């Protein structure tokens, strides 16, 4: 898909390849559906170049200390890898101005974060001058 140019964006993240297929996004938009994609900051910047009218929501931890605690609790990274993840998160926080909204994801309150994202989607649908998103 990368070689054929079939992805809106793609990245190698911590040794894993991730991407957003153009065809599925185009099809959903053509059907009038909402499209939600989870990408890193670089992916958001790439998509913003392709779809500048899209709505961008940054999901943030309450603090860097909270993020570190969550990462340690998951036990998926340790040592150097944990430090790389923390540094990457700090860099991503500096890109906040690329986004339209920020939602803080508090521990044990994922329902609140989801509710806030749903509210943003609802508010965007109520705009006097709606965004026109086409791929």
Short description:
This protein is an alpha+beta fold. Helices cover 45% and strands 16% of the residues. The protein is built from five helices and four strands; from the N terminus they run ββααβααβα.
Task: Explain the overall architecture.
This protein has 135 residues and is α+β, with helices and mostly antiparallel strands. The protein has a domain at 37-125: P-loop containing nucleotide triphosphate hydrolases (Rossmann fold). Helices cover 45% and strands 16% of the residues. The protein has helices at 22-30, 41-50, 64-74, 79-93, 110-125, and strands at 7-13, 16-21, 57-60, 101-104. It has a two-stranded antiparallel sheet with strand order 1-2. A two-stranded parallel sheet has the order 3-4. A hairpin with a 2-residue loop joins β1 (7-13) and β2. The model has no long low-confidence stretch (mean pLDDT 90).
Task: Give the tally of β-strands.
Answer: 4
- Total helical segments: 5
Sequence stretches where pLDDT stays below 50 over 5 or more residues: none
Name given to the CATH architecture of the domain at 37-125: 3-Layer(aba) Sandwich
For the record, what is the CATH homologous superfamily label of the domain at 37-125?
P-loop containing nucleotide triphosphate hydrolases
Helix content: 40-55%
Strand pairing plus helix content: what structural class? alpha+beta
Instruction: Say what the CATH topology of the domain at 37-125 is.
Output: Rossmann fold
**In one word, what is the shape?**
globular
